[in-house]
Amino acid sequence: MKVYKFGGASVRSADGVRNLCDIVREETEPLFVVVSAMGKTTNALEEVLERFMAGDRDGALDGFAQVERNHEEILAGLFPEGVPAAVAGAVEALYAEARGVLLSGGAREADYDRWYDRIVSFGELISTTIVSAYLERAGVPNRWIDMRRCFVTSTRHRDANINLPLSAPLLKRAVAGAPVRVFVGQGFIGSTAAGDPTTLGREGSDYSAAVAANILDAESLSIWKDVEGILNADPKLFADTVYIPELTYLDAIELAYSGAQIIHPKTIKPLQNKNIPLYVRPFSDRGKPGSVIRGEMTGRIEAPILILKPNQVLLSIRPKDFSFVIEDRMVYIFSLLEQYRIRTNLIQSSAVNLSVCVDASRHLKEVAERLRQEFRVVYNSDMELLTIRGYTPPLYEKYAESSNAYLIQKTRKMVRIVRRTFPWRPQTNIY
Ligand code: ASP
Ligand code: MG
Asked: Is 117 in the pocket of ligand 1 (CB under 6 A)?
């Protein structure tokens, strides 16, 4: 068994789905295909949710109608001779179910994360329904798998973790004895043991694919992307990026954690545990080798790797009256952040000061208010975190010394800089 994962960009159009079909058809081994929501569907559904939470039912339905139209356009492109009734019916049933949720109303802000999962999970359900139907029509018989019934997750809505021991028998049973070689399942979604839908965190489809690979003892996982492979920086920001042919699991986890968009941070562990190699392959040029992530490297990484994590907030926290050193209250501070699911990306402390760089979150104001009962809290928004792994002195000078850095953390291998977001000219040079 091999696992292939296709992200939103690779299925954003009818041409994309046809390309997916060609890739799947070329493979001769049994294949588990994990698919994300099409194009920007997840973002669109997040907006639908915002309106829904604000009590704007019509706005939410309008937003959802646009999501429907986007999918209808792809369907029309895939089935120019007319969408088969069964396919149209299956997709319409999902739209209707989603509309039903949007009509239910009365959502409380406290249940935001649960509603998120209920509504946003439709993106993947719709995309896989379309992909599976198209493959079938194109002569690739396959079985559509409902991952909500295979992945049992924690109840941590919007950032759920998959319970491997509970999920393994379910997924194995779902693929067992199938008369087909190809399976199509949704990335990003699962459900709690009680059957409540959950999502695994933005870009979580990679994680889904990795867990599927683990459970099915796959020989490899390939993530098909709209890039040549792993690059040493985001090519949208830098003109002089270079391609990195191989990385270890450890490198990959560090990079993903720092905000590299290559793969979701939770992806590596399930692969590492069974020593399954991960290939990042260019969707539009199947002849190219892409990059591989695995336990051992044959060479070494020559280029520095730059990762920019946007949407950061730098909190500076200190006891109001110096009556205690900050260490005494660290557990409290971090449990508060954890309680609101705010991700901490960098920590620096002194006797009476704690600086934490966290992801901007809708709950941050609330957290700051609670902290202000005991602490003086300074709150810098519009920050970004730049991580440079394998930096050189000139690079250090360019980025740490000459930028408006608020906070710098440095080890022999890596420097991390929290700085005010600045309007990046599209594509500068790394050096
Ligand atoms: N569709 C989800 C997202 O856009 C999951 C994924 O693409 O991996 O975040
Ligand atoms: Mg995506």
From this structure: no
Domain limits of the chain? 2-219, 305-420
Weakest-pLDDT range from 46-60, 108-122, 193-207, 257-271: 257-271
Min mean pLDDT across 59-68, 79-88, 132-141, 349-358 is at 349-358
Ligand nearest the Cα atom of residue 46: 1
CA proximity to 420, closest of 315, 311, 342, 347:
311
**Is the model's pLDDT at 424 over the cut of 70?**
no
Measured distance CA(261)–CA(9) in Å, rounded: 13
DSSP H helical segments within 54-146, as ranges?
57-78, 85-104, 112-120, 122-137
Assign 3-state DSSP to the chain and report helix, strand, coil percentages, each to 5. Answer: 40, 25, 35
**Residue nearest atom 5 in ligand 1 by C-alpha distance:** 203
Q: Token pair for residue 115?
A: 């509603």
3-state secondary structure of 392: coil
**Contacting residues for 177 by C-beta, under 8 A, at least 6 apart:** none
What atom of ligand 1 comes closest to residue 123's alpha carbon?
1
Domain 305-420 coded CATH 3.30.2130.10: yes
- 104, 61 contact by CB (below 8 A): no
Superfamily per CATH, domain 2-219: Acetylglutamate kinase-like (3.40.1160.10)
Helices 85-104, 57-78: crossing angle, 10 deg rounding: 170
Cα(40) to centroid of ligand 1, in Å?
9
Higher pLDDT, 251 or 152: 152
Protein residue whose Cα sits closest to atom 7 of ligand 1: 203
Nearest CA owner, ligand 1 atom 2: 203
> Are the beta carbons of 266 and 201 closer than 8 angstroms?
yes
- Sign of the CA dihedral with 86 first, then 87, 90, and 92 last: negative
Specify whether the CB–CB gap between 20 and 106 falls below 8 A: no
Same CATH topology for 2-219 and 305-420: the answer is: no
Query: What gap in Å lies between CA 232 and CA 230, rounded to an integer?
Result: 7
How high does pLDDT run on average in the chain?
Answer: 93
